[in-house]
């Protein structure tokens, strides 16, 4: 029993510690999509080889308090709950830290067990990785389209250039599809195009230096 408990609690801690330094080779979502026949295209690059404009676009789009919270944006959570109590739809309030924890360690879904595990992993990566590593991992594992993972693979696929050279407009277009990357293409118009323009206009308020 003690061995089982040690494995249950020790393995997650070991993986978090390992991924502080080692590129994440695969995620549960990658494996699921691969089994479903979507293929797998990815290439890990360090944060220094990803355009700062993409980090700014992602923060603008997904988590504007990324540099100031400790894994959970309680202001955003409170606002989401207030909207729900007023009769609105219950919207998500996940931070980039929570999304990274989910993408790297867990399966897709919204049940209570997965959300609880997500919270635990979020605490661990905030404590052991820090903001720049969280962003680096997120940008390298996030799904950007069917069978397409990471900023480098997406930059080549959509824009035929390395991620380090993405200008602001293309970075904003990439971030605009993140709510549903399997549906919204950064090359299209409509909702994604409108959202990209909004993100681009707001990026000026985000520091060029990520979490200084």
Explained architecture:
- The structure is a single chain.
- With 212 residues, the chain is mainly alpha-helical.
- The chain has a single domain (11-205), classed as Penicillin binding protein transpeptidase fold (Orthogonal Bundle), CATH 1.10.3810.
- Helix content is 56%, strand content 3%.
- The chain contains ten helices and three strands, in the order ααβαααααββααα.
- The protein has helices spanning 2-19, 28-35, 52-62, 74-85, 96-105, 112-128, 131-141, 151-159, 168-176, 190-202, and strands at residues 41-42, 143-145, 148-149.
- The protein has a three-stranded mixed β-sheet, with helices on one face.
- Strand 2 and strand 3 form a beta hairpin.
- Helix 3 (52-62) packs parallel to helix 9, helix 5 packs across helix 7 (131-141) and helix 9 crosses helix 10.
- The longest helix is centred in the first third of the chain and has 18 residues, at 2-19.
- Residues 2-8 have low confidence and may be disordered.
Task: Write a concise keyword list for the protein shown above.
212 residues, mainly alpha, Penicillin binding protein transpeptidase fold, three-stranded mixed β-sheet, 3 strands, 56% helix, disordered N terminus
